[in-house]
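Students often ask what a 'structure token' actually looks like in practice. Rather than answer in the abstract, let us consider Chemotaxis protein, a protein of 179 residues. Its sequence is given first.
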Amino acid sequence: MSFSGSNQPDLDWSQIRETVKLLAVSVAQVEGSMRIGDESVNVLTAAFTEMVADMNAIRNLLNSFEPSEQRDEALIHCSATQEKINSSIVAFQFYDRLQQCLQHVSVGLKGLSAIIESPSRLYNPAEWYGFQEQIRGRYTMESEKIMFDAIHQGKSIEEALALANDFDGKAADDEIELF
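Now compare that with the structural description of the same chain:
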């Protein structure tokens, strides 16, 4: 059975199907980007793992040499490089957080499509409430919950983002947020 599209509408045309198609495109874009990002991060992770092993081998080799100014200078460079590698590894943790947020968006868009496609769910406030609670329940980061709650309290996107960013800033100051 073929459905008419917005490019050639007929009596079977539906704005709901058009909405679902656009949501599906959004999900595909998010999931495709996440896959590409994962591939790149996997390559980088492997490279950093190898660099750590190489730096340890270099440090061990240098420590086996007689003390000298050149050896000590090389050890200083090893330590500096190790610090840069460690900083890069911390940056990967932020990528994991991004991936987690995008996964939540993808799951939410899929669920939204399912509600919109089903007339019995579309016009049922209990279905919407249950779906919203499922979405919020998947959040593991407090900033996501803050943003979700702000939007559902009628705040603008900008206000919700500001509240979430304020929380993230405070969490960064405390240096602890489990996600």
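One point worth highlighting: The chain is about 80% helix and 0% strand. Ask yourself how you might have guessed this from the sequence alone, and why that guess would often be unreliable.
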